[in-house]
Amino acid sequence: MVAAGSCGGLAADVEVGTLIVGETFTYSLADATAFGYAPGQLPGGPERFEAVPSWVDAAERAALRADGQGEGRGVRRGLMLSGDAFVTADLAEPMRERFAAALSADMETTASARTAAALGVPFVALRAVSDLCGPAAGQQFHLELDVVAEYSARAVAELARELSV
After folding, report:
1. Which end of the chain is more exposed for a tag (fewer CB within 10 A), N or C?
2. Total domains in the fold of the chain
3. Model pTM score
4. What is the three-class DSSP state of 62?
């Protein structure tokens, strides 16, 4: 299973158009820390859902090839967050403090990772940053969805070619 599409850029050094390859996934707003769980961990679940390492490597190579075909916005890999709220500037800073390594935020990737894990299906995420969560002054904060959809689609097509070999 490949989660594709757009996401919000959360890390301070992520720009719109960057391709994000998910290695690990957790819930941005889940908080059962009072019961001994890690931030983002649901009771009874793993601290993080993990992508298949060989798929992460393949997705990164695919994203780098796709990135080289276009505007060259860059590729990052790491932690992706998901929650049930759009990440406004008010939510972004506390999320950055709680999840210092998080690159992006969206509303469905972690749920997809959880479903894949429950079904025993290999999983990776490959999304393009469409907007920045609480951008800094002077940063471009938004790209049209059809533009980032093309970035993501190009990278997923490259990944499909690599995985089919």
Report:
1. C
2. 1
3. 0.90
4. helix
